[in-house]
Design brief:
Layout (H helix, E strand, L loop, with lengths): L6 H4 L1 E5 L2 E5 L7 E2 L3 E4 L8 H5 L6 E3 L6 E3 L11 H5 L5 E3 L3
Antiparallel strand pairs: 1-2, 2-3, 3-4, 4-7, 5-6
């Protein structure tokens, strides 16, 4: 299931590995980001979003099997929605401010 478009209203802000994330009762890791958001519970860490992004919005968070795509430079997003299109688990939600 893709990210809830109202995740910030429907979840509680907390921290995961020093990152502000939004969690609910069923999430383990939460959702990170605002205009470019990644659901760490859904992300499989395949790197497709990192490869397709023309402005290098993403970095890796974690290592090995636990690595996740981190939208660390979402202010650089040009809203091409390429990352959403290539994500196999629909773990990314891009929304214009």
């Amino acid at each position: 299931m893709p990210i809830d478009p109202n995740f910030q209203a429907n979840r509680v802000a907390t921290t995961f590995e020093n990152l502000k994330v939004w969690k609910n009762k069923i999430s383990n890791l939460g959702i990170y980001g605002t205009n470019v958001a990644v659901d760490f519970d859904l992300c499989v860490g395949d790197g497709a979003c990192i490869e397709v992004c023309p402005t290098n919005v993403f970095d890796w968070q974690g290592v090995g099997a636990d690595r996740k795509a981190l939208p660390s430079r979402e202010r650089d997003c040009i809203y091409c929605f390429g990352c959403e299109a290539v994500c196999p688990k629909f773990a990314i939600r891009v929304s214009k401010p």
